[in-house]
Amino acid sequence: GYLDGINATTWSEGSNVSIPAFYIHDGGTLTQSVAAPVTITTHGSFTEAMLISKGGGVNLLGPLIVNTYGESKGIIMEGAGTSFLSTNDVTVNTYNNSTPAFTVNNNATATFAGTLNINSMNNGSDGLVIQDGAMGTINKVNITTAGDFSEGIILNNINPSLHKRNDVLITGSGSAVTTHGKHTNALYAEDNGFILFSNDAVITTTGEDSRAIYSTRNGGVLMNGGSVNTEYAGSTAIESNQNSYVTLVDTDVHSAGAAI
After folding, report:
1. Which residues pair with 30 in a beta bridge?
2. Cβ neighbourhood burial of 241 (10 Å; 0-12, 13-18, 19+)
3. Cα–Cα distance for residue pair 219/191, rounded to 1 Å
4. pTM value?
5. Per-residue pLDDT reduced to its tens digit, 201-251
6. Going by fewer Cβ within 10 Å, which terminus of the chain is more open, N or C?
7. SS3 state of residue 52
């Protein structure tokens, strides 16, 4: 299908069946011929702004803005051969609990030539989630989570016995990941999850019992330039354990609590 500019809104109160605003699956594609803006707003439960699965593909030229309310979700990708490509900025705003903004799962791939902007306002709502053999390549991220237990970027495996490799590469400069809630990690790399910032990212956590960077169980984080910051006395700037690593190259570390 073609998507040359649209403003879509969905409601799904009382439904127990998934009702995505856009459902691209089984080799289907959604493309744009012009760089027109697209805005998707979801309300209620069992709703996704965009569900891409089973080899479905999305190719966007214009900016995408997603707003989620109630128990609805942002963008979810699932399955080998499933792809998302945006040559413009993507913005996902979540206003509900337990809702990830952008999930790349199970061998799917996402590519962003512009900036990925994520604003997560409530508890248990992670920003960017990459799991089970998935990969993301992004020019720039600007991710903020406000709630407790809400990671900025998390890479892991839903099934810990799989040990699939998950990667996210942020290639441009000027990225920022900030978490404000309690018990959060701005960057969380676990179980063969690897996060690479090529240029001058700023990673910040302000909440209680939180970490700016947490790498565990064979995970890894590499930063070139930029800074790592914690603003709460009971928080840790960097923690690495269980055969994982954190490598900082010309990166400043400022911590109100434990630095490492």
Report:
1. 58
2. exposed
3. 5
4. 0.96
5. 999 999 999 999 999 999 999 999 999 999 998 899 999 999 999 999 999
6. N
7. strand
